Amino acid sequence: MTFCIPKITLCILLTWLYIQEIVSQQSSSKCENDLNVAVVVDGSIKDAANAKKVRSLIKQISDGFEIEPSKSAFSLGVVNFGISLHLPVDQSFSNLEFQFFVDQVDFSNVPRVITDYGQLFQSSNNKRSAYDNVLVTIEQYGTPHAKTFSKLISTLEKNTKIVKIVIGPDASTSTDTVLRIENFGDLLAQDFIRKATNAVCKSANSKSCATSMDIGFILDSSGSLRNQYPQIKGFIQDFANNLDISKDGVHVGVVTFSFYATLSIKFSDYVDKTAFKTAVGNIPLMGSTTRIDKALKISNDELFSTSNGARKDVPKILILLTDGSQTQDRDAVDPGKVAKTLRENDITIVSIGIGKGVNVDELEHIAGDRSRVYQADDFDKLIEGGFINNILQKSCETAKFKENRFNTVSDITFMLDGSSSAASAFGSLKDFIIYIMSRFTQYAHFGVLLGGDSSQFSIKHSSSQSIENLRAQMANINLAGGDRMNLDNSLQQALTEMQDQSSGMRQGVPKMFVLLTTSHQKPTGKELDKIKQIQELGGMFIIVAVGTNNYDPSFLFSIPREQKNVHLLPGQSGLNNAFADVISKQISSSAENIKQDAVIDLGFIIDSSASFKDYYDLEKDFIKRIGSRFNLDQYKTRTSVMTYSNYINMISKFADFHGQKSFESAIDNAAFSGSTSRIDKALAEANDNMFSVKSGGRAGVKQVLVIVTDGVSSASGVDPFAIAKKIKNQNIHVIVVAVGDAIKANSLDALGDQVFYMNDYADLGSLDFSTNIMNSVSDLAKKKVEALCQQEVDVGFILDSSGSLRNEYTKEKDFLKAMAAQFDVGKSAQVGVITFSYYTELSIKMNQYNDINDLSKAVDDIPLMGSTTRIDKALRQAQSDMFAIKNGGRFGVNKVLILLTDGSQTQDVGAEDPADIAGEIRKQGINMMTVGIGPGVNSTELARIAGGKKNMYQAESFDVLIGKPFLESVTKAGCEKAKEVLPPEPTCKAKVDVGFVLDSSGSLRNDYDKEKDFLKALAATFGVSDDGARAGVVTFSYYTEHSIKLNDHTSLDTFNEAVDNIKLMGSTTRIDKALRMTQKDMFSIPNGGRPGVNKF
């Protein structure tokens, strides 16, 4: 159906339009939202005077919009017993046309009843489908058409914003979208027209700003505002209407100023929109001069203080409202300088000037950028929906941009090509860097390493970097010189910085390097070596190369560990914000994947008492954040988590080997208890069980306990500080996080090795604070655990792997690992393992591992053999192989052999008595211990193998075996055995003079010690004494030397020490000279040769 203009004479139409053009003052301020507005009027309004008032209201509302095909459009309908559409949405082409048709509408006439209410917004070819739809209903209270209105609203409300205007004696309260007025006479009051127009304007595009942020208002309260004060406060109230003011949403505060400035509303005062608006309305006028500087200072010092409710990790915006400029009193400070401090604290400032008395340059100086300065010609403009909406949307966009920044803890270094080849792209490269910097919060620290012929840090990493300061520093960076970037020099600078932190890099923080180059880069070998060193220190690279002819792709792809981190751009046009977002995301994800490979047992005690009710989730997030720094793995960082109140709940044990996801899941599922705080119980559990081998604690691994508490309470007579001391005496480092202002400073110092105090529970959510804890744990992880036994010793374990151990094999190996960890593996101690059942195997050689963690992995990988128990075979292999020089055994070093078994010798045909073999082993100078587990052992047999009951230990069960008391007693005994010297018995007891001719030529440079070890082993078979065997040494290369005479030493120990001190000659091989000296000197009487004694 086609809708036609009612027939009137052209003269009347032109005359009406001309008169309207003259008498109608088009408002200079229109709603900036382009909408489809359908006005539907109650057809029961029959009175002509009232209908005229309704028409006038509709026209004045429409006058707040620009009606034209590309902007807003209005349709008009009337409800009688259906809805008649008088004017479709796309047939009003201007404000004047629409208002003309409004005057022609007869509310009682029904030209066309529509059943599809969507037709109110339909346009030909759907050309207005992209615009938001707003339905405005005008009805009188008690209308007979209420059901039709209800059906209309319920049909459209899913996709359409609704504004209702109700006329009549309804006692209900008006809201932002339901406007109630008692009689038709009040419809045309200017205040009501403004409210109705704003309600329509704001209802669509001005969707509630749901972003979580802290918004502060600086309210000018000077004398010049005496008559307009309600309107400037009305701006704040209308602005607040569109904010999600709630506990977790938007928090609002107000600083009021004139000559003085005061914090009128704190961020912590209101989380309810209505209450906030009421409080704003009650702020009195000060009525003096205009000291903007004081208001900005109060904002910085008080408004955005955490003690007044400001949150650390949400976007912050400050909106200044003034109708004047700074009063230049004697003590006045440049408001721009004060504002700069606010901006450096990551607070975005918006300046709004009202009227002609403002200083626009001053407002820009305060805001820091012209784009954040807004001007309202007058106070009516200030409170118009379009003006408010524009500022609201920009503020929300700013908050969302900040909210979507990366909270990545990282030191990010931009390696910027400053050579002449980068000249044309240099500005784009710098802008690209600035944008990336803006995508991160303060937890990322930035450095810029400028490279040309030489390299230097133009911007050093710092905690006090604001984007404004960084932008200013970037503007001062100029080309470095040289025709290409000397990458080798830049990499050396980066490497040096990682090693000594001279430019401000932080310890324990992921390091990212973004290489931005336009230079021709080819490897020389030096670069790749430095790249490897940086990567070994934990650094990661992202490459952005600009200009297709300027680089060698094969070289660039060899720099990062992943090829996805290399980006080749044909030209500088690719350095846009969209690509910068890609790089920012890549930096963040790469940095977050840099985990510290610390070998550490990290325990957490979480306070689940009633006082943490409102902060329990924050506390758990804090624990998860600390865990996220480390590589959670069976052989790296293990975690254990316990919650406490009046009861203890062990959430996870070290033995569970949690990865990151399961660790976080366990914490998320930790239920809140909400009872009293019994920290003594938590400490007792940590002392007795948390770090035990049974629970997965590892000996020889750094162990750290992090305790969160807001106070110390315990049962009567129980001293938590004494329990904490016991924990620390086990070399478990205790970190205490003391939360809340109820804890006095230094009151918990004795509870931990390190104590961090925070007054505000909300600080648990601070990345700065958790980073401090992470860094402390990281530093501890780097410290080597002092082994209980520092003695130089070779320790051999004989590990029972028979079938009876099928269900307990892991515990037996846990005991072995825990005991081995008490020796200084890799420094003074070596460990080897023989595994046995029916067959035997040298599973781990003495010289195979020099790190306790690697040794532990190897022990875990030893499979179960699962057959009988041939102890004799295991002892025979130990005798021949365990301490052999070829398998890493060291000559002259004390030796201990420890047998672990849960059974006794299987009496097969041909089996030997294991005690006889053990006796032979002891005669070789090897101390022995035996450990029997469970009821199946033969105590007598084990005592005979060990050489007596004092060297035999028995655990009632495998749980006892890995329990702390038994493990400590056996470990202590093992350390004492390691110190005990058991001289080997010589196998050749003849009285003999033995001479050695020792090759000391250059070809032996790398194996000289092995040659001397062989010499000492041969000498040991004879023994060295005054009346028994004597030994001498002639050393040779090009020259010869009589290094040890036959009468120099009367004991094997001093002889061995003398052999160790013989230095390498390192020349040619003159055997003839050595033999001549031996013939002449070796066995002569003056040199100790004895007449009548055999010579060898």
UniProtKB/TrEMBL annotation:
<feature type="domain" description="VWFA">
    <location>
        <begin position="601"/>
        <end position="777"/>
    </location>
</feature>
<feature type="domain" description="VWFA">
    <location>
        <begin position="411"/>
        <end position="583"/>
    </location>
</feature>
<feature type="domain" description="VWFA">
    <location>
        <begin position="993"/>
        <end position="1096"/>
    </location>
</feature>
<feature type="signal peptide">
    <location>
        <begin position="1"/>
        <end position="24"/>
    </location>
</feature>
<feature type="domain" description="VWFA">
    <location>
        <begin position="794"/>
        <end position="970"/>
    </location>
</feature>
<dbReference type="Pfam" id="PF00092">
    <property type="entry name" value="VWA"/>
</dbReference>
<keyword id="KW-0732">Signal</keyword>
<feature type="domain" description="VWFA">
    <location>
        <begin position="214"/>
        <end position="391"/>
    </location>
</feature>
<dbReference type="InterPro" id="IPR050525">
    <property type="entry name" value="ECM_Assembly_Org"/>
</dbReference>
<protein>
    <recommendedName>
        <fullName>VWFA domain-containing protein</fullName>
    </recommendedName>
</protein>
<dbReference type="InterPro" id="IPR002035">
    <property type="entry name" value="VWF_A"/>
</dbReference>
<dbReference type="InterPro" id="IPR036465">
    <property type="entry name" value="vWFA_dom_sf"/>
</dbReference>
